[in-house]
Amino acid sequence: MAQYYLYFKAFHIVGFVSWFAGLFYLVRIFVYHAEAEDREEPIKSELKKQFSLMSERVYKIIMNPAMMITWTCGLSMLAINPAILDQNWIRVKLLLLVLLTAYHLYCKGIVKKQLAGISPFNSYQFRLLNELPTLFLVAIVLLAVIKDVLNFAYLFLGVLVFGFILFSIVKAYKRHREKKAKS
Fold first, then answer.
1. What is the pLDDT of residue 148?
2. What is the DSSP letter of 62?
3. What is the pTM of this model?
4. What is the distance between the alpha carbons of residues 59 and 104, in angstroms, rounded to a whole number?
5. What is the pLDDT of residue 147?
6. Left (φ > 0), alpha (ψ -120 to 50) or beta: where does 119 sit?
7. How many other CB atoms are there within 10 angstroms of residue 58's CB atom?
8. Rounded Cα distance, 105 and 126, in Å
9. Which long-range contacts link 149-153 to residues 24+ away (Cβ below 8 Å)?
10. What's the rounded Cα separation, in Å, for the pair 51 and 47?
11. CA distance 29 to 49
12. Tens digits of per-residue pLDDT, 110-155?
């Protein structure tokens, strides 16, 4: 069984790269869906219909399988080498993965609402929501690569600072777009 560890690891990496790609793309579609509200009919209805179809497909065809591959291969690696569970970094990583899975499921709720014609957020709020996977990605990769060498308090503080920087960039971009729209 140990000879399969590297195969599980390779597919785990492929899975999480695909999962994050889907997470980033899905919420970007949510942004476009919300921006379609500002368009005139019949373009508005056509765009919303198209974006709803795209978000449903990204969720079902990319994100769900990628998440399942990520979890299956990751748990398979832990089954092959259960001693990893004795290390603190893997416990924190698993907690972050559970939270990321909750975010994934939360996005499913948004897909359903948009299919029903309801948009729970405006485009700016969706842009902020789109930054959450970035924070997860940075924290998870740092944990997996640096492991126990990194003081977890510094990691958490660093991710929060990174999140604040991302928030500031999104806010500045919003001001830039609003200024550009007025001129």
1. 67
2. I
3. 0.84
4. 9
5. 80
6. beta
7. 21
8. 16
9. 150/89, 152/88, 152/89, 152/92
10. 6
11. 12
12. 999 999 988 889 988 998 899 899 889 988 988 888 886 566 777 7
